[in-house]
């Protein structure tokens, strides 16, 4: 569902702010797809690291939330990837 929503949002962004990727819808859709996949990979890598260290939560500021690392695990991978896509294609 997240990947499909991200692709729909990319099409909406294309029509409202077409200059983001130089009016190229294909590049924008590829960027949306790849960013969705890298955010999933970031979540899975963080979960694998927690399991390897036998930790349930990476913090205890908000009980049951999983810690700050659970809140930003997808961004850790997706943000640099977006920057790279924007730098090379934007």
Explain the layout of strands and helices.
Elements: H1 2-16, H2 25-52, H3 68-89
- SSE series: HHH
Oligomer: single chain
Number of strands: 0
Describe the largest sheet.
none
Tell me, what's the shape?
Answer: elongated
Q: β content, as a range?
A: under 5%
Mean pLDDT: 83
Distance between the termini: 26 Å
- The helical percent reads over 70%
Per DSSP, the total helix count is 3
pLDDT < 50 stretches: none
Description:
The structure is a single chain. This protein is mainly alpha-helical and 90 residues long. 72% of the residues lie in helices and 0% in strands. It contains three helices and no strands.
List keywords for this structure.
single chain, 3 helices, 90 residues, elongated, mainly alpha
What's this model, at a glance?
The chain has helices at residues 2-16, 25-52, 68-89. It has 90 residues and is mainly α.
